[in-house]
Amino acid sequence: MKVLSAGILLYRQRAAADLEVWIAHMGGPFWAHKNDRAWSIPKGEYLQDEDPLVAAKREFAEEMGVPAPAVDYAELGSFRQPSGKVITVYTAESDFDPERIVSNTFSLEWPKGSGTVQSFPEIDDAIWATEPEARTKLVKGQQPILDALIQHLRTKSS
User: Fold this and answer.
1) What is the pLDDT of residue 158?
2) Strand partners, 118
3) Is the dihedral of CA 109, 61, 150, 36 positive or negative?
């Protein structure tokens, strides 16, 4: 059975007409000192019988510590990741600006083999990034999501 994930890619366009997207830095020791290819859209797994948009909003809230903006979302599509996971992504324009990010956590034996289990945030930072900046920060498998967003915006404006 394939692993399903759902996420939200918020976007905004500033006065200079630069497209910005909301992305999150993955938490935990593996990602701690990485910047390029260490960011993701807010997302998480869901069960096959669950509505992916409902799951995407839930996962966004868990990773950001605040609810997803109450706006109309459009489905960008489903994107197969190198791991085989399929992410269904929704997008919306928003000027999302939380005071702080408070992500849910996961437990991991760290250092590996030490017998010590530590708690780490799933997300340890989140930012608005320009589209070119997001292309260097997002994990490789999520690059097509940016392409889909740009196509969506072109279609929306014509």
Assistant:
1) 75
2) 108
3) negative
The residue behind tokens 């999302």 is 96
Q: Is residue 7 within 8 Å of 44, Cβ to Cβ? A: yes
What is the mean predicted confidence (pLDDT) over 6-32?
Answer: 92
The count of C-alpha atoms lying within 13 angstroms of the C-alpha of 61, restricted to the half-sphere facing its C-beta, is 10
Domains of the chain by range and CATH?
4-157 (3.90.79.10)
Q: Where are the alpha helices (DSSP H) in 80-130?
A: none
| Length of the chain (residues) | 158
φ, ψ of residue 133 to 5 degrees: the values are -65, -40
Predicted structure pTM score:
0.94
Q: Which residue has the tokens 């190198």?
A: 82
39-84, pLDDT tens digit by residue? 999 999 999 999 999 999 999 999 999 999 999 999 999 999 999 9
Pick from 50, 37, 31: which is nearest to 141 by CA? Answer: 37
Q: Are the C-beta atoms of residues 26 and 122 closer than 8 Å to each other? A: yes
pLDDT value of position 30: 93
